[in-house]
From TrEMBL:
A Pfam family recorded for this sequence: MS_channel_1st_1
Transport among keywords: no
Transmembrane segments: 28-50, 80-104, 116-137, 158-179, 185-207
Repressor among keywords: no
Full protein name: Small-conductance mechanosensitive ion channel
Domain of life: Bacteria
An example molecular function term from Gene Ontology annotations: mechanosensitive monoatomic ion channel activity
Keyword annotations: Membrane, Transmembrane, Transmembrane helix
């Protein structure tokens, strides 16, 4: 009697397991087909977008605007079509993957992938911030170095380097904040960086320019005295 009951339980367990496998196989096949088709569509769309942007000569436009030099010196390659095409490709891959996972009924994975799709705009904005920073940092470095040399100030390259890296640090902190990476910590770090930079600039101008300020005040006093006479 006990063996018969045990056999019934074992039989029921295997029957449920086999029924689950039979029910899962069609879903898996459909999900696999959706993902493969989605992958092909995503790759094709990415290439099409990259080719269209290449035909529009966007790289040439950015080169004429002076983006190529700073971006190359920053360690990146100027390929607007490839970058946007890659974003389009991975966006559609994740979208079709969400559809495939939805067919399988994996709700937690589905929610995670939806969060990934919702996060993509932050990645785009952060990338844009870094690209703009590469151009602005290089341009400001050249301006500071040129101005310092024109004013016959020592350490013009050092001043240019400080300007460049100050902009880069600012941009990296802004990109991290946009990505939501340790938001309160980045905000505190950013505030501390601005405070330290302000103090450093104040000290440098205060200590380095005290002689010039004294001469200016003396000249101003002399002009006032001459005006009274």
């Amino acid at each position: 009697m006990a063996f018969e009951a045990f056999g019934d339980i074992l039989y029921g367990s295997f029957q449920n397991l086999w029924g689950g496998v039979i029910e899962f196989i069609p879903k898996f096949i459909v999900a696999f087909i959706i993902f493969v088709l989605g992958w092909l569509v995503a790759v094709s769309l990415g290439k099409i977008v990259a080719q269209i942007l290449g035909m529009l000569k966007l790289d040439k436009i950015f080169e004429n605007l002076g983006f190529e030099g700073p971006i190359t010196r920053a360690g990146f390659k100027l390929d607007v079509g490839g970058f946007i095409g890659g974003l389009v490709k991975w966006f559609f891959i994740v979208v079709f993957l969400i559809a495939a996972v939805d067919v399988l009924g994996l709700e937690q994975v589905n929610l995670f992938l939806r969060d990934v799709v919702a996060y993509l705009p932050n990645v785009i904005v952060a990338s844009f911030i870094l690209v703009i920073a590469a151009v602005v940092a290089d341009t400001m470095r050249r301006i500071v170095v040129g101005s310092a040399k024109a004013a016959h100030l020592p350490s013009s390259e050092l001043l240019g380097g400080i300007t460049k890296w100050a902009i880069w640090i600012f941009a990296i902190l802004a990109a991290m904040y946009q990505l939501g990476i340790a938001g309160p910590f980045v905000q505190t770090l950013f505030t501390g960086f601005i405070a330290a930079l302000s103090i450093a600039l104040g000290l440098s101008f205060g200590l380095g320019g005290k002689d010039a300020a004294a001469r200016f005040l003396a000249k101003l006093g002399s002009d006032i005295s001459n005006g009274r006479k």
